[in-house]
């Protein structure tokens, strides 16, 4: 007999514990395996309240100034893809992590890990792309490092960047601030970066070229904050896509998220590719999009500011934050049904950033 009183929290089955004695690709995918590795291995080893918040960038105070501090590593294959390269990602990824705390990014460090035998012309192309992206983002690379590993023990070029930025007074953006009643906004179409990488790596064509959305988002964030500092949460849905980002926010804030699936902007080429490959666009990585949780009273003004900015022209309201089913994300389908958007366990598309 069907229990008609059951809610979304009763619809999903518990996932058995995952026991991996060795590192697997999913540990770097931004999903449940990544979270387990961080919470059960790294956090106990490092300790500290700031690290335990698990935000895209840490908020620290130094000399009376509030700073955002972040680091990230880039191991994408191939090194060059439609719309960008590992050099662009190394800047935009770190700049965007800083921007998600409302910071104005200022300085980057950059470390190159090179495989013996890699052509210097390739390294030069990556470095030129990285420098150009830094200038576009308005940040300066001020320190760095280079290491070389034996042939066969790398993949040409890996890059690590760390960045710092200044958080304006009165800005407090973090996942814990999501509140029931908040409106969920995405800054543009999703899924382009992951499909662009996959199409080149696997030699697939989908009738038209899919270009990565990699771009710096700090300018868009500052345009949003110019309207109101009362933006509760920002997150760039990179590894694990929109689904992973929303789950992290819902779990951290102990709230629920309800999406209007038909309102989530998905380019036709991405939708076609995902249908062909059996993928869900909400789990595909992005590198130039953000998701925002905004109080309802500020939604129209924030949307207007976003759509006036080049990186937010196609911004759309895609859902809302609710008190029901805390820690869960559900989607209303075009047929009027409701489905659970499960958190990703590993990574659908490995090596996308």
TrEMBL record:
Q: Which Pfam families match?
A: AIRS, AIRS_C
Transmembrane residue ranges: none
Q: Start and end of every PurM-like N-terminal domain?
A: 56-167
Q: CDD domains attached here?
A: HypE
Q: Which InterPro entries match?
A: HypE, PurM-like_C_dom, PurM-like_C_sf, PurM-like_N, PurM-like_N_sf
In terms of domain of life, where is this protein from? Bacteria
All copies of domain PurM-like C-terminal, residue ranges: 179-325
Please give the coiled-coil regions recorded for this protein: none
Provide the family line: Belongs to the HypE family.
PANTHER family for the chain? CARBAMOYL DEHYDRATASE HYPE, HYDROGENASE ISOENZYMES FORMATION PROTEIN HYPE
This chain belongs to which protein, by name? Hydrogenase expression/formation protein HypE
Supply the source organism for this entry: Streptomyces demainii
């Amino acid at each position: 007999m069907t229990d008609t009183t059951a809610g979304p929290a009763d619809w999903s089955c518990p996932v058995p514990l995952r026991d991996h004695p060795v590192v697997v690709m999913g540990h770097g995918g931004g999903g449940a395996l990544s979270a387990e590795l961080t919470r059960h291995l790294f956090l106990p080893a490092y300790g500290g309240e700031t690290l335990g918040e698990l935000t895209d960038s840490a908020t620290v105070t130094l000399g009376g100034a509030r700073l955002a501090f972040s680091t990230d590593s880039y191991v994408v294959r191939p090194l060059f893809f439609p719309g960008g390269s590992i050099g662009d990602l190394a800047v935009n990824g770190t700049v965007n992590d800083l921007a998600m705390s409302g910071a104005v990014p200022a300085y980057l460090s950059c470390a190159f890990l090179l495989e013996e035998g890699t052509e210097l012309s390739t390294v030069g192309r990556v470095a030129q792309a990285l420098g150009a992206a830094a200038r576009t983002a308005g940040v300066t690379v001020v320190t760095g490092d280079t290491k070389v590993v034996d042939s066969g023990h790398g993949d040409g070029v890996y890059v690590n960047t760390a960045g710092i930025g200044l958080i304006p007074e009165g800005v407090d953006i973090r996942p814990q601030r999501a509140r029931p009643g908040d409106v969920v906004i995405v800054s543009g179409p999703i899924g382009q970066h992951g499909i662009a990488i996959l199409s080149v790596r696997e030699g697939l064509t989908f009738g038209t070229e899919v270009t990565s959305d990699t771009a710096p988002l700090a300018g868009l964030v500052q345009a949003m904050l110019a309207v109101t500092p009362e933006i509760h949460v920002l997150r760039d849905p990179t590894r694990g896509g929109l689904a992973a980002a929303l789950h992290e926010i819902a779990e951290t804030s102990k709230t629920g998220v309800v999406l209007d699936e038909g309102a989530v902007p998905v380019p036709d080429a991405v939708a076609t590719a995902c249908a062909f490959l059996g993928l869900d666009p909400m789990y595909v990585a992005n590198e130039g999009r953000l998701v925002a949780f905004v109080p309802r009273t500020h939604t129209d003004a924030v949307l207007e500011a976003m759509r006036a900015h080049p990186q937010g022209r196609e911004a759309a309201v895609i859902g809302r934050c609710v008190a029901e089913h805390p820690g869960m994300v559900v989607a209303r389908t075009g047929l009027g049904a409701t489905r659970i958007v499960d958190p990703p366990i590993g990574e659908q598309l490995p090596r996308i950033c």
